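USER:
Class, as today's exercise, take the chain set out below, and explain how the chain folds.
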Amino acid sequence: MTSIRLPHDPIELAREHWLRRGWSDAADGMALVTSIMRIQQELLARVDHELRPFQLTFARYEVLMLLEFSQQGQLPLGKIGERLQVHPASVTNVVQRLADDGLLSRAPNPADGRSVLATITPAGSDAATAATEHLNQHVFSNLPLEPADQIAIYDRLTTVRQAFGDFA
């Protein structure tokens, strides 16, 4: 997924510039934030590449998996946006595309006539399962970190997410 392999680490170079400018109190934080953002770009590109044969993006995959894991295979669009932490307009767009492809259905919510209920279809469930098995093999179980490091980094990032108010 990386377009070019650089002969040096540009984030470390930027960190060195921060230090030379006298921003030593922020240099490590800048390097960490920039590294996390770069890793996010790389992982998203890799996941989207692996999902392409399933005609899914990561956003579409997340909605399918959220519905797949829900008790009845359905959720109001507002709940989908809340759980995925995305803007309602983004949810509406993704859900409409999935409905157009027959992977979920949309209907007025009988419990609240003002909202729309998304329900995963059998084709959506099959696509979610197949895509997950593929991602498990080609991405999630194939990271360049030892399992103990994966959980340690996850734990540290969870602490940061909680400190930022991502969840209670």
